[in-house]
Amino acid sequence: MRKTITAIALAMAVATPAMADLVVPNLSYRTGPYAPGGIPYADGFNDYFTLLNERDGGIGGEKVVNPECETAYNTEKGVECYEATKGSGALVYNPLSTGITYQLIPKVSADGIPLYTPGYGRTSAANGKIFEWVFNYPANYWDGASVAIKYLLDQNGGDLSGKRIALVYHNSAYGKEPIRTLQELSKKHGYELIEIPVDHPGQEQKSQWLQIRRDKPDYVLMWGWGVMNAVAIQEAANIRYPMENFIGIWWSGSENDVLPVGDGANGYKSLAMHGTGMDYPVYGDLKTYVYDTGKASGAGDQVGSVLYSRGMYAALVISEAIRKAQELAGHSAITAAELRNGFEALEITEARMAELGLPNFGQPFAASCADHGGPGHALIQQWDAAAKKWNLITGFIAPDDEVLTPLVMEDSAAFAAENAIAERCN
Amino acid sequence: MPDQLLYATEAALNGLMAGVLYSLVALGFVLIFKASGIFNYAQGVLALFAALTLVGFQNGQVPFAHLINAVFGTDLHHFGWQLPALVAIVLTAGVMVALAIVIERYVLKHLVNQPPIILFMATIGMAYFLEGFGDIMWGADIKKLDVGLPQGLNETIDAVTFEAFGYGFFIDNLDIVASVVAALLVISLTLFSQYSKQGRALRAVADDHQAALSVGISLRFIWVLVWSIAGFVALVAGIMWGSKSGVQFSLSLIALKALPVLMLGGFTSIPGAIVGGLIIGMGEKLFEFFIGPMIGGATENWFAYVLALLFLVFRPQGLFGEKIIERV
Amino acid sequence: MFYREAGDFKTSYADDSQTFPIRFDRLRYYAVVAVAFGVIPFVINDYWANAVFVPFLIYAIAAIGLNILTGYCGQVSLGTGGFMAVGAYACYKLMTAFPEVSILIHVLLAGGITAMVGVLFGLPSLRIKGFYLAVATLAAQFFLVWLFNKVPWFYNYSASGQISAPERTILGHPVTGAATTASAKYLFCLVILFALAWLARNLTRGTVGRKWMAIRDMDIAAEIIGVNPLTTKLSAFAISSFYIGVAGALFFAVYLGAAEVGEAFGIQKSFLILFMIIIGGLGSIFGSFAGAAFMVLMPVLLKNILVGQFGWATDLAAHVELMIVGALIVIFLIAEPHGMAQLWRLAKEKLRLWPFPH
């Protein structure tokens, strides 16, 4: 019986991948506890490539295919997906999971496939000298933490001393990322940091918010994902915590997080890496070529949401990197290694964003051999519950590189020492 | 009163409220365990499924829209109506009864006389199935559940305690409603099992399957009945938890919250489920309050289990469980 | 025709008490071992190693471990995920603290440490029985996961709490880290599995195993005939945890390469492994293998059929896959509650008479 099954499986696995185009696998999750976040991201990612295929006939004349593989935010399935797709000539991976990213970093480095993790993953991968194959521009978690503090500094006339800031975080690799940065920053700015962990999945947070109600911190920062966000915002509304003092990371700032709470969420703020909403020219093309022709990914009901925009943004950066790589390589059917060069030489200017139909959507950035992290600027957006809409309330804020750079160097040096990696780019 | 004591009282009160919700889930377990000896792990998924169905009916979602669209290339999503909450609840209860009949007909009937571990595993299999089924039927995205329950700080309690102690206690309106509903549910279940004909039959089955069969009680009917009741309890639990966090996958994990309650109270005792829920709810909140900050917080997941374990070492059958008599 | 006892005479005690007394069984066993060691390492590629074989081998070790405790000694445990985490973190600490010592020793030591933790959490089993014990072991599951997440010493104070396995070699070939070849991974796990399965098979045939089974079948009766419940139950916990710890160490170091405790060793893992031994067959070493193969292969197979062959949307396929796996489990339990091992026994009964069933 086992042999029969093995035989069938063999037949299946051999029969699946057979493509010659530009393969950009989409390791998505549309099931499991984090599906509400995974669905819009995957839809945006797919739709943008569909647009390129339908409107421009692909990139540089090569069609892009996105074989989708379901990870359910689970690292084992992530590994299976990676192994299943890498044989088909995959060019770049974007797993939308910090856990899977950690898993894939050594694998992609050995296999020579770029890994693109915008706004998530391993922060110190911003150091291109150590992490040759990993890119996480335009911004990472530590940038986010620093930008949030910068914003609070702004609000308080440049002085946070004596203030108390609580960090409500998802008790996992992802949620713990900002702690060290916030601790360093607290030394510099003299605020007191209160760390409040919330265990997966975060359905029950009464104790945490009672603690906040008692302690009355001046500000609350949140590193949440999935249902934890909605519950936290609900509990904050319940204890009447002033919403304008409550700031989430960009993964805690989507419609899914605030809509279930209703009016109580009004005024909640979150960081953002990019603009959102449908007021961009690119949506005209998307409508003509993708939505109206019935080629939209998924149910097609996520268009214009924050996470949809983020998926689209990731797809845009990847497609620009492919374009750059084609230019550098001189031919259009590029390999993964050539794409890595494209990622490293990528420069996205505001003019280019406008040309692509997304003016004032993201920050301009330029990568280099040593810098895989980008400038790390971020915006602050605020939820308007009546209009059911996120409004941007600041321009791009720069992080405090003076604090961040040594941290990135320290962490990446530790990784290099553990894995005996020599520095590049010297 | 000193501040620390006030805060602790507040935490304890909130713990009691949370405990009532745990009891509600545990109640579903106990009912099924008593009547059929099945440790029903699917109880949490039942709650998720019930809540999904309720929201689906309320918003007039087309069931299996995703599947239908994929197969026939249509673009169906909504029927375009909004049902009042009460109608939707009644309809959902109907679905839960239908589900109970299906489960009895296709699963339980075939598993009579199997050892408990096999039955337990079968319910986990059912949990997987229902999870996939619920997602396919209604979609995996997060849904807002609103049946008009009040939420947020209770002003009166806040004001009164502020008057009395100079610190306003935070009690969530939703928790108060949940406690009242749970209390009503327990009272009506007790009345039902004590005074109605079916209820007495149910107790007879719980007491001794064979004796019950021999006096002409239909075991299969009782099973359908008890799974329907468990489905209804799951619906209530789903509404309470779903109102707070929206309806999505994580709702099914509340089953894990009910397990320590069961251990503590005993698998076979309804009062045990209630008292166990209250002890666990209060215990974990107080532990998080006093000890949590010293050892880094987020202790709630395991503390309930450790507490129950300690209880069990002294009373291996739980607080109110039937005494285990062993003979060779 | 092929499978028969008739004519298979034994002339010494050693012959009589060998593991596979029937000739056909013995030959089949040699054939499987020959293929596993002699053929697969040469044809295996990354996909097959990482998606099928390595997880299968590691889960088989864990399943044997749990089968010793649950199948042979009758103590239901839902703490498997937590014990695997102990193995993984012990291995990580040892690997980073003593880089010059061979990884094989680290893996075995990790198993030993897990055995000690297992005994500790096994103590309540002397008083608590049945389902109460099952739920009580969940205390171990949740507490251990919390501990490894909370105490930075366990993950060497890394920023995110992730642990990742540095490269370690055996005889010059890397077996952990990214440079490991598919066949090195496979062989490393296979050798350990082979040794441990051989050990388990012989343990369960001997005095220790008989004591376990006596406790399983009726603990009071066993006590009366002179089986010490304390040592018997605790030895089952210790040996079972040793296996599970080794599996956890391999799972982290060889298979995943990096792990996060809540995600990789959560409660789902405990259920998965319990499924394996129930579907495979309680109290059977072969059953542990069959169950592990079933639970590892089934989802991969379904996914490849639904997405790869039929071209379904991945979410639809994932939901259907969940339904099919759930339904299969239920159907299996209804059709053959004693698991695949029982099917195998029945098949052998049939073979014995074949082709003349009357």
Automatic annotation (TrEMBL), chain A:
<feature type="signal peptide">
    <location>
        <begin position="1"/>
        <end position="20"/>
    </location>
</feature>
<dbReference type="InterPro" id="IPR028082">
    <property type="entry name" value="Peripla_BP_I"/>
</dbReference>
<comment type="similarity">
    <text>Belongs to the leucine-binding protein family.</text>
</comment>
<protein>
    <submittedName>
        <fullName>ABC transporter substrate-binding protein</fullName>
    </submittedName>
</protein>
<dbReference type="Pfam" id="PF13458">
    <property type="entry name" value="Peripla_BP_6"/>
</dbReference>
<feature type="domain" description="Leucine-binding protein">
    <location>
        <begin position="24"/>
        <end position="385"/>
    </location>
</feature>
<keyword id="KW-0732">Signal</keyword>
<dbReference type="InterPro" id="IPR028081">
    <property type="entry name" value="Leu-bd"/>
</dbReference>
Automatic annotation (TrEMBL), chain B:
<keyword id="KW-1003">Cell membrane</keyword>
<protein>
    <submittedName>
        <fullName>Branched-chain amino acid ABC transporter permease</fullName>
    </submittedName>
</protein>
<keyword id="KW-0029">Amino-acid transport</keyword>
<feature type="transmembrane region" description="Helical">
    <location>
        <begin position="40"/>
        <end position="59"/>
    </location>
</feature>
<feature type="transmembrane region" description="Helical">
    <location>
        <begin position="12"/>
        <end position="33"/>
    </location>
</feature>
<feature type="transmembrane region" description="Helical">
    <location>
        <begin position="79"/>
        <end position="103"/>
    </location>
</feature>
<dbReference type="InterPro" id="IPR052157">
    <property type="entry name" value="BCAA_transport_permease"/>
</dbReference>
<keyword id="KW-0472">Membrane</keyword>
<comment type="similarity">
    <text>Belongs to the binding-protein-dependent transport system permease family. LivHM subfamily.</text>
</comment>
<keyword id="KW-0812">Transmembrane</keyword>
<feature type="transmembrane region" description="Helical">
    <location>
        <begin position="110"/>
        <end position="130"/>
    </location>
</feature>
<dbReference type="InterPro" id="IPR001851">
    <property type="entry name" value="ABC_transp_permease"/>
</dbReference>
<feature type="transmembrane region" description="Helical">
    <location>
        <begin position="176"/>
        <end position="196"/>
    </location>
</feature>
<feature type="transmembrane region" description="Helical">
    <location>
        <begin position="261"/>
        <end position="281"/>
    </location>
</feature>
<keyword id="KW-1133">Transmembrane helix</keyword>
From TrEMBL, chain C:
<feature type="transmembrane region" description="Helical">
    <location>
        <begin position="271"/>
        <end position="296"/>
    </location>
</feature>
<feature type="transmembrane region" description="Helical">
    <location>
        <begin position="101"/>
        <end position="123"/>
    </location>
</feature>
<feature type="transmembrane region" description="Helical">
    <location>
        <begin position="130"/>
        <end position="148"/>
    </location>
</feature>
<keyword id="KW-1133">Transmembrane helix</keyword>
<feature type="transmembrane region" description="Helical">
    <location>
        <begin position="27"/>
        <end position="44"/>
    </location>
</feature>
<feature type="transmembrane region" description="Helical">
    <location>
        <begin position="183"/>
        <end position="200"/>
    </location>
</feature>
<dbReference type="InterPro" id="IPR043428">
    <property type="entry name" value="LivM-like"/>
</dbReference>
<feature type="transmembrane region" description="Helical">
    <location>
        <begin position="50"/>
        <end position="69"/>
    </location>
</feature>
<feature type="transmembrane region" description="Helical">
    <location>
        <begin position="316"/>
        <end position="335"/>
    </location>
</feature>
<feature type="transmembrane region" description="Helical">
    <location>
        <begin position="76"/>
        <end position="95"/>
    </location>
</feature>
<keyword id="KW-1003">Cell membrane</keyword>
<dbReference type="InterPro" id="IPR001851">
    <property type="entry name" value="ABC_transp_permease"/>
</dbReference>
<dbReference type="Pfam" id="PF02653">
    <property type="entry name" value="BPD_transp_2"/>
</dbReference>
<protein>
    <submittedName>
        <fullName>Branched-chain amino acid ABC transporter permease</fullName>
    </submittedName>
</protein>
<keyword id="KW-0812">Transmembrane</keyword>
